Amino acid sequence: MLHERFPSKLLENAVEQFARLPGIGRKTALRLVLHLLRCEQGEVEEFGNAIIQLKREIKHCKVCHNISDTEICSICANPVRDHNFICVVENIRDVMAIENTHQYNGLYHVLGGIISPMDGVGPNNLEIDSLIERVKTGDIVEVILALSTTMEGDTTNFYIYKKLKNIDVKLTTIARGVSVGGEIEYTDEITLGRSIVNRLNYFDTIK
Amino acid sequence: MLHERFPSKLLENAVEQFARLPGIGRKTALRLVLHLLRCEQGEVEEFGNAIIQLKREIKHCKVCHNISDTEICSICANPVRDHNFICVVENIRDVMAIENTHQYNGLYHVLGGIISPMDGVGPNNLEIDSLIERVKTGDIVEVILALSTTMEGDTTNFYIYKKLKNIDVKLTTIARGVSVGGEIEYTDEITLGRSIVNRLNYFDTIK
Questions:
Q1: pTM score, whole prediction
Q2: What is the C-alpha to C-alpha distance for residues A182 and A175, in angstroms, rounded to an integer?
Q3: Minimal CA separation from A168 to chain B, in Å
């Protein structure tokens, strides 16, 4: 496919643009572009403009750094939410995942990544200082760490812990354990081990 | 995912546009859009504009109906190619596939689909009349049918045959048989049957 001869430069250009997206090869890119060619002119312009407009006009919330259409995002601006709680996440997809559970009513803080020396991401590339500032200046009661259970996630958790340990705030992390509906037999041993060590009082779980 | 709460209307709009593409679900769409958000402004504009420009400026060759940047495509306009041969294909992807073999030096005729009553595609929705016109008026020696080996492909072949049978032109179809490198044992019986019925003189194949 590398030496594919395109009958049109315009077509080749559009295919190359699509093929730059993650997980989209040149065959898929060609299929998508040919689909767009069969669509109405208006639909295609809408598609192209939606992407250009997104990049031009999108904002990041000044408080939590989540993606937003306004200076302060709808979560941070919502007076009904509990402004004493901050849940620390890696990216906006994690915010959406937690929001979908309908189990959390506090605020968020989007780091924009996790500490990963291999990828050249250090604490200064992330929104950690702004988190510490928020905790210092705001009425924050609890900071909930909700990062991936990877070495990078653990490193980031520990870095934040060190920065916060002299501040009077509760620091928690989301529970790790056997997933709901998961069978003991098929759970990996590290998760199973953790779920035994961090076992819960049964009466608390059925309240 | 249907009731996903997006933190931004712009984001939601862009995700919905991507999710309309074939084979792209909402999760993949979100991943692609978040990737674009991490790209440079210029790159994203280039992406959006490539698609809009493609749809606005692309032409279809007046002769063979292949996609083209000019009135007459680069294949039809090429004096080195053999203008006595027309290879009839369903779409532009087939042109590209045959071109990649470097085994054909004639012209093409892109039907824009095949006859498929189930999908509401009849002969009048396709570039069949223009093919007959080309054969009648041009110096065409041979028309090569290169459509899919499906019921729709066979129907279209037969329809073209009926239209061309009173015109003095050779009508051929590309060979069906066991694929090169294919094992007899794993070849489906219809293909294997056809390859026995349409067997070739061995001496012709080693010449």
A1: 0.73
A2: 15
A3: 31
Which residue in A has a C-alpha nearest to residue B41's C-alpha?
A55
Which residues of chain B have a CB within 8 Å of the CB of A32?
21-22, 24
Q: Where are the strands (E) in chain A, listed by range?
A: 59-60, 67-68, 85-89, 107-110, 142-145, 170-173
**Angle, vertex CA B18, rays to CA B119 and CA A55, nearest 5:** 155
Structural domain of B45: 9-57
Asked whether residue A146 is domain-assigned, the answer is yes
DSSP state of A124: G
Q: Identify whether residues B71 and B167 lie together within a single domain.
A: yes
Per residue in A11-58, pLDDT (tens digit) is 999 999 999 999 999 989 999 998 998 888 999 999 999 999 999 999
Residue A95 lies in a domain: yes
DSSP code at position B124? G
- pLDDT tens by residue, B74-84: 999 999 999 99
The domain tally of chain B equals: 2
Kindly state whether residue A189 falls inside one of the protein's structural domains.
Answer: no
What does the alpha-carbon distance between residue B114 and residue B126 come to, in Å, rounded to a whole number? 7
> By three-state DSSP, how is residue B68 classified?
strand
pLDDT by residue for chain A (207 residues), tens only, comes to: 444 578 888 999 999 999 999 999 998 999 999 899 888 899 999 999 999 999 999 999 999 999 998 999 999 999 999 999 999 999 888 898 888 888 889 999 999 999 998 889 999 999 999 999 999 988 899 999 998 888 898 899 999 999 998 999 999 888 878 777 777 777 788 888 877 777 777 777 666
Q: Are residues B26 and B96 in the same domain?
A: no
Question: In terms of domains, do B76 and B133 share one?
Answer: yes
B119 touching chain A per CB within 8 A: no
Closest CA to A160 of A129, A138, A139: A129
Residue B72 lies in a domain: yes
